[in-house]
Amino acid sequence: MLPYIGEFIGTMIMMIFINGVVAGCVLNKTGLQGGPVMICIGAAFGVMVPVWIFGQASGAHFNPAITIALAAGSMFNWSLVPGYIVCQVGGAFTGAVIAYLLYADHFDATDNPDLIRAVFCTSPTIPNFFRNLLSEIVGTFLLVFPILGMSQVPGLSAGTGKIYIWALVVAIGMCLGGLTGFAINPARDLGPRIAHAILPIRAKGPSHWGDYAIVPILGPIIGGLLAVGLFKIIPWA
Question: Nearest Cα to 213, choosing from 121, 88, 117?
Answer without folding.
Answer: 121
